[in-house]
């Protein structure tokens, strides 16, 4: 039997760019952002505890090479650019010292929450008084468990070929027998009509 505990985080609606290289998120941006924040915090704690290879492995889910062999963040955000890239997704010290906006303070707070949570588990293991080698192994095992849990979250992905199809599916999924609030429909329409800043 498997020890895996299933954590279903809902559905995400995506559509493919015209060149087929990118996916645009219609529904699921907050979940992707939260997962990225938790992965970044875990990467940094792995670095702190002397596990650079594991940290690099986690970074591979945040940043990958594109078809031109250039590093590119997997999740590109518009509202918290460049803070999110510099202070969350970037491995190592930020090149730019940026003061977070009001919205970005929430991102900063979520990162600190995740980082402190992982650090607390490390401290709990250190407080047990294990021999150094056993302590290092226990910390590594616990942090690998968190990584594996984050990477095995269950989600339904609905990927469509056009933006119009994606918004129709989004509206259908969110109706559920009850009409969407006017503010949700307006937000949906504005999101659809506003041009993407980064393609």
What labels describe this entry?
alpha+beta; 199 residues; two-stranded antiparallel sheet; globular
Major sheet summary line: 3 strands, mixed
Order of helices and strands: EEHHEEHHHEHH
- Portion in beta strands: 5-15%
What is the overall number of helices?
Answer: 7
Helix amount:
40-55%
Unreliable stretches covering 5 or more consecutive residues: none
Gross morphology: globular
Strand order across the largest sheet: 2-1-5
Rounded mean pLDDT is 84
Radius of gyration, taken over Cα atoms and rounded to an integer in Å? 19 Å
What is the CA–CA distance across the termini? 44 Å
SSE class: alpha+beta
Number of strands: 5
Q: How would you explain this protein's 3D organization?
A:
- The structure is a single chain.
- The protein is globular.
- It is an alpha+beta fold and 199 residues long.
- It has helices at 29-48, 52-59, 83-89, 102-126, 132-151, 163-175, 182-193; strands spanning 8-16, 23-27, 63-65, 71-73, 154-160.
- 53% of the residues lie in helices and 14% in strands.
- Strand 3 (63-65) and strand 4 (71-73) form a beta hairpin.
- It has a 3-stranded mixed β-sheet, with helices on both faces.
- The protein contains 7 helices and 5 strands.
- Helix 1 (29-48) runs antiparallel to helix 2, helix 1 crosses helix 4 and helix 4 runs antiparallel to helix 5.
């Amino acid at each position: 039997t498997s020890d895996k505990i299933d954590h279903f985080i809902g559905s995400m609606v995506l559509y493919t760019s015209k060149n087929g290289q990118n996916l645009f998120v219609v529904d699921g941006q907050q979940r992707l952002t939260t997962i990225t924040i938790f992965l970044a915090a875990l990467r940094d704690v792995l670095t702190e505890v002397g596990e650079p290879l594991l940290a690099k492995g986690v970074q591979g889910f945040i940043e990958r090479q594109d078809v031109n062999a250039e590093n590119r963040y997997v999740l590109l955000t518009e509202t918290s650019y460049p803070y999110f890239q510099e202070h969350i997704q970037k491995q190592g010290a930020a090149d730019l010292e940026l003061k977070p906006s009001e919205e970005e303070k929430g991102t900063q707070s979520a990162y600190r929450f995740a980082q402190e949570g992982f650090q607390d588990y490390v401290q709990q293991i250190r407080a047990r008084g294990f021999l150094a080698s056993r302590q290092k192994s226990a910390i590594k095992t616990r942090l690998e468990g968190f990584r594996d849990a984050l990477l095995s979250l269950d989600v339904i992905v609905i990927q469509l070929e056009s933006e119009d199809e994606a918004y129709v599916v989004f509206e259908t999924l969110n109706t559920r027998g009850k009409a969407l609030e006017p503010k949700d429909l307006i937000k949906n329409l504005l999101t659809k009509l506003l041009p993407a800043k980064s393609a």
